[in-house]
Amino acid sequence: MLRLDMPAAFEADWRLASRLGAWGTLEALAWGLLGGKGGGLGDDPLWSALAALAGREATAPLGRGIQAGNGFRLPTDWPSRLRRPVGDGYLWRHEDGRLLLWSDQGYLLCDRPRGGSGVAAARDALRPYLTRAAADSPGPRATCGNVAFRLAAGQAAAVPYASLQGAWVRAVDPVVRIWLTALLPYLDLYLRQVLCDDGPTPGRSLLLHPARLYVSSTHVDLVLPLEGVYLPVRMAGLDRDPGWLPDLGRVVSIHFD
Prior knowledge:
With 257 residues, the protein is of the alpha+beta class. Among the domains are: 72-158, no CATH class; 209-257, 2-Layer Sandwich (Alpha-Beta Plaits). Helices cover 28% and strands 21% of the residues. It contains 7 helices and 10 strands. It has helices spanning 11-14, 16-34, 46-53, 118-126, 174-195, 202-207, 231-235; strands at 72-73, 89-95, 98-103, 107-113, 141-144, 147-153, 212-215, 219-224, 243-245, 250-256. A 6-stranded mixed beta sheet has the order 1-4-3-2-6-5. A 4-stranded mixed beta sheet has the order 7-8-10-9, with no helix packed on it. Helix 2 runs antiparallel to helix 3 (46-53) and helix 2 (16-34) crosses helix 5 (174-195). It is globular and about 55 Å long.
């Protein structure tokens, strides 16, 4: 969350910081990345602890009352955080008055009101994601610096939305589920690259570990066994002590014992 500036990165369109809050956003991401797969995850006491930290009753749906934004837009600096091949491609589609734009690496850039027609609207939506304004070049292929990219019409079945399944889905407000389905394909790819994990569920490699959680009015301490050190997470720097986090209102520490 810190690396990707969440929830502030989605405040303008979804009001995540002000309505869901940092703890609620963390809980939503955990639900989504774990996917509710595997026995007993829904009964883990972690969820009650996260709900309490967010100031919510454990039985209340996560994100209840949050209002949907007018569309989904991936933060414009996020694609540059990925390892992108030369010749990266983008696809677009008009559907029900909306423009869908996505990378051929399998993550959504935007789902917004159409605001134009054909490839011109797609170029307009793509422009903020390019390091130099090259989207006005004619034809389906253009260049950004010395890197060529392709822009083509895509099929409905290829739009990269995550599929959320399982009983856990009922614990999450529909609006939050909409946000997660658009966001998770990017997060999965980001984690696969950061953790060098080619498996189908990199979020489980990051999050699914036995541990003890201690919560007070000022501190949250996560204690993992020494054998719980996971080398890809350590090399990526994802198990460092965050320390004082104003958005969470706590000092957050990670210990190995």
